[in-house]
Design brief:
- By secondary structure, the protein is an alpha/beta fold.
- It folds into two domains: about 1-40; about 40-199, Beta Barrel (L,D-transpeptidase catalytic domain-like).
- It is built from five helices and ten strands, in the order H-E-E-E-E-E-E-E-H-H-E-H-E-H-E.
- It has helices at about 1-40, 115-120, 125-140, 165-170, 180-185, and strands spanning about 40-45, 50-55, 60-65, 75, 85, 90-100, 105-110, 155, 175, 195-199.
- Helix 2 (about 115-120) runs antiparallel to helix 3.
- Mean pLDDT is about 90; it is low at about 30-35.
Length: about 200
């Protein structure tokens, strides 16, 4: 009788150890996969307080651009149309194009789901506007740029603008501006869907 119970306990213990080992190995595999994908990802970081843009590649700095310009009234988590604020958050490059006014323009997916959620929670947009934005996102369509949150934001050059104004002031309506030379440097790294973290 004692031996029989001992066998039951041993088999239960073996099964539990097997499940624990399986769970441990699965977690290790998932962690290594996530770490590996971070090691190969290329993304952009925009530091609005230091006025610099960094391209990160495999966790290391590949390009550092200083002296960028942001919205003339700074940066904010909730950015409204006409506020001249640069939105803080994580976005994706949604378009890459030449621009007559700005030389090159790299659009971001603003407003995105997180932006819309924050604005709804803060009563800055109504439910109908939120639904309009989310419906476009869920259907992989262009997000409306005419809501109270505004739009048409991205990273761009200065075109034929005054380089001295660019160096001395934050002058944009909410975009991130670089010199034309800097935008060419960034263009070498750019691809659609690239993550852009603005803080």
């Amino acid at each position: 009788m004692y031996t029989h119970l001992g066998r039951i306990n041993f088999s239960i213990t073996s099964r539990c150890l097997g499940q624990i080992l399986f769970a441990f190995l699965l977690n290790l595999l998932v962690f290594n996969f996530a770490a590996a994908s971070n090691q190969t990802e290329t993304w952009i970081e925009v530091d609005t307080s230091r006025l610099q843009l960094t391209v990160m590649n495999a966790g290391k700095v590949s390009l550092l651009i200083r002296g960028i310009s942001i919205g003339r009234f700074g940066a904010s988590r909730i950015r409204m149309r006409g506020s001249n604020l640069t939105p803080i958050g994580t976005f994706r490059i949604s378009s890459i194009r030449n621009s007559q006014r700005f030389y090159k323009f790299f659009g971001i997916d603003y407003p995105n789901r997180k932006t819309a959620d924050l604005a709804l929670q803060a009563n800055r947009i109504d439910l109908a506007t939120w639904k309009k934005i989310i419906k476009a996102i869920d259907n992989n369509m262009s997000v409306p740029q005419d809501t109270p949150l505004g739009g048409h934001l991205g990273i761009h050059g200065i075109g034929k603008g005054d380089i001295d104004v660019h160096r001395r002031y934050n002058w944009t309506n909410g975009c991130i501006a670089l010199t034309n030379e800097q935008i060419n440097q960034l263009n070498r790294w750019l691809k659609l869907g690239m993550r852009v973290t603005i803080f």
